[in-house]
Amino acid sequence: MSVELDDLTDAERKALARCHQAILGRRRPLRLDCGVELGPYRMAYQTYGRLNADKSNVVLICHALSLDQFVAEEHPLTGKEGWWDTLVGPGKVIDPARYFIICANVLGGCLGSTGPMAHDPATGRPWNLRFPVVTVADMVRAQAELLDHLGIPDLFCVIGGSMGGMQVLEWAASYPERVFSAVPIACAARHSAQNIAFHEVGRQAIMADPEWKGGDYRLHNTVPARGLAVARMTAHITYLSEQALQRKFGRSLQDRDALGFGFDADFQVESYLRHQGSTFVDRFDANSYLYITRAMDYFDLAAAHDGVLAKAFTGTPTRFCLMSFTSDWLFPTRESREVVHALNAAAANVSFVEVESDKGHDAFLLDEPEMFRTLQGFLKGAAIVRGLGEGA
Amino acid sequence: MSATPIRVDLQLIADMVESKTRALDVGCGDGSLLAYLASFKRVDARGMELSQAGVNACVANGLSVIQGDADTDLGDYPNDAFDYVILSQTLQATREPREVLRQMLRVGKRAIVSFPNFAHWQVRLRLVFGGRMPQTVSLPYKWYDTPNIHLCSIDDFRALCRDMGVHVERAIVLNSKSHPIHMPPLLANLIGEQAVFMLRRD
Fold first, then answer.
1. Interface contact A319, partner B, CB < 8 A
2. Measured between CB atoms, does B21 come within 8 Å of chain A?
3. Do residues A158 and A25 both lie within one domain?
4. Is the separation of the CB atoms in A203 and A230 below 8 Å?
5. Does the residue A154 lie in any domain?
6. pLDDT score for B4
7. Which residues of A are catalytic?
8. How many CB atoms within 10 Å of residue A222?
9. Most CB atoms within 10 A, among A129, A135, A218, B25?
10. In degrees rounded to 5, what are phi and psi of residue A105?
11. Model ipTM?
12. How many CA atoms, within 13 angstroms, populate the side-chain half-sphere of residue B138?
């Protein structure tokens, strides 16, 4: 049934074998911000738990740049545990016994949802770099169409960190009546110049790799592995904090007692980064990386509302809970605070917690009891108002 | 969001708030008033608290609270965003009490303010006869570590309300056991240990 869309990569085949998919945009294509109409397109998604009778228990999880729909289970490619296993699962804060949990691979992604490696229905050839540039708003539109397809009217909660948090903000701004509560974590209402700069380094690394071949590497049976690995190494530094790097590695040497006076990975931190880069290549697509980083760069919620962020939330009925981490320099607390100020200006119901942590941006994926407590309390309060009861 | 019995002065404030309204508690501390208003009066209750630890505890308890400062952060809210803006035992710790009051009455249709009375007889005695800065149950700090930088008496507060053209809807004076007392203003200013005022714009 998907012949018209593409011939799948191995990664996509493995992913789709382990999750659900929906082909959308057949009758009415998805109108993207860039003006292109996309359709049909595929959304790959995973669910946990059961939809209750009045469809009031849906939690939508929005994933970050390099993550995917495999939130709380073994990853089909890496075999590693789910990226939000700490938060989602039986007995956890987001419990499938209580909520119907959905996470969809973003539009432009590479684990089953339509992205640059799909085929352009007009030409029958892979899009590659001819794939239209998608935005965070486009990703959210596609998720909204997925919910329509599933017959889900609204969401009890939309939650996500980093780019997932951007999607949460976009959800609340675009579909306020469909979002009962929203939890944007470690994110911002716009991508900063510094963040765009880091993404640009990553993209240039990919495009400078001779194996990238103008984005047509699959046609040439090559992979721009070195470029993508360097992109990941750069990005990975931004996810950590100076303290965390120092604590974890210091100046410790890797498998040696003395400096090698060469350019091998003398230091543990180098070896660690090289490992991060090379393993990333096994699970992520280089063109997808270009497209998704671009979507983040283009994100500016205020710009879409006359430059006034508060206007994005005028009259919002949504309950918000924002969280940031003290050592996150990629999405520092002041960015979350700006969103809080805007929400206050819209007289929205908002909670905001800054969590003390030295683990940098990645803290939102880690074992952070303060984050769990905050979320537990917020969801409990929201569930009572929603009529879901206090629950477990 | 279970609410245990709350402090007597907070209970008095809670009794002033109509049910099913919107209220902002500025300096909400551990959130006990918020929890009470939300559970027992179905109030859409929000809080602002200076200490991040206080905020985190409130949110973990299911309350809508943000970290913020009464002096700087009330300006974010639009006019008439709330039916009540509450400031309990915090006015005397603000840098610009008059501006804070003005903001409260801009953001809220009504303001409820409670504060310790610096003209309480014990305070007067300690200063006049003891010759030392007063320390009492409601003013427990030493002069050098007190957060209270703008203390006032009940009469001072009434005078400020007059100057600002603010209408005093209710004024309740409490004795040292936090029981309401009813006496003429001059005496209330001597006997009252603290006061709760409900204000609205004229």
1. yes
2. no
3. yes
4. no
5. yes
6. 67
7. 162, 328, 361
8. 14
9. B25
10. -65, 135
11. 0.87
12. 26
